[in-house]
Design a protein that fits this description.
- The chain has three helices and 14 strands.
- The protein is α+β, with helices and mostly antiparallel strands.
- A hairpin with a 3-residue loop joins strand 2 and strand 3.
């Protein structure tokens, strides 16, 4: 009887180690939820190639800007603190539509181990057909500029418009570096006295658009083995050990 146990101790030990190997996922959690940003005091400056989150009279694409966190943030970000820091963007450094690794794109003064890495500044989704057309409600435009544009412009009326841009990235808490969340964010602003054609004319002509802005960043977990997966794995391994045992018994 003892020699039979010795034969099967290795498979049974393998099952135990396999289950323990997945155990840390039961206790650590990734950053998830909606991070809601922006008040009327948060300003942004935009020109043909730069997005300055800390605009103060002229474009500076090599610093960070502080933006207020709203109380409507959810999940992990309900404890994000009162503000976050966002690094400025330049299409010369972060090309539109390219895969990048812009570490610390968003950081959290109240949670110093949290950070967002930007992986792609998404291209605008519209054509440029209406960018220079006579203003009309419902028109959409993504400017046709060298290197691409991240901006989506929409005319709400002949004199008002909305501008937005989006990005992809990952969220991470450095205390659990193996757990990352997928991030998708959108920043937008409504202009009450300018249509999209006026905005495009300003930027293409070498000017700067300055406005307040807001944003929402959603973090969702990257799929990883959960308790159900571990139970299934354990069952499969145990079943495998039973099959091996039967084969050994048949050979005795």
């Amino acid at each position: 009887m003892q020699h039979i146990f010795e034969r099967f101790r290795a498979p049974l030990l393998f099952v135990t180690v396999g289950l323990i190997g997945f155990a840390p996922g039961l206790y650590a959690t990734a950053l998830t939820g909606n991070l809601v940003l922006g008040t009327p005091t948060d300003s942004i400056g935009v020109d043909l190639h730069n997005i300055d989150f800390n605009f103060s009279g002229s474009i500076d694409n090599n610093d960070t800007g502080s933006i207020n966190v709203l109380g409507t943030s959810t999940g992990s970000f309900a404890s994000a603190g009162s503000s976050v820091n966002i690094a400025d963007l330049s299409s010369l450094v972060v090309p539109v539509g390219a895969t990048v690794n812009d570490v610390n794109f968003i950081t959290f003064p109240a949670q110093p181990t949290w950070s967002f890495t930007l992986t792609e500044l998404l291209p605008g989704v519209y054509t440029s057909a209406a960018c220079t057309a006579a203003p009309a409600p419902g028109q959409t435009c993504t400017p046709n500029i060298a290197g691409g544009s991240p901006f989506n412009l929409t005319n709400n009326s002949t004199s008002t418009s909305t501008v937005s841009f989006s990005f992809l990235g990952t969220a991470q808490d450095s205390t659990t570096p193996t757990l990352k969340s997928n991030v998708q964010g959108i920043f937008s602003e409504t202009f009450s006295n300018q249509n999209l054609q006026q905005l495009v004319s300003t930027v293409v002509g070498g000017g700067t658009i300055v406005t307040s802005y807001s944003g929402t960043v959603t973090a969702s977990t990257v799929p990883e083995p959960g308790p159900g997966s571990m139970v299934l794995l354990g069952a499969m391994l145990i079943a495998g050990s039973v099959i091996v045992r039967k084969r050994h018994q048949g050979a005795v």
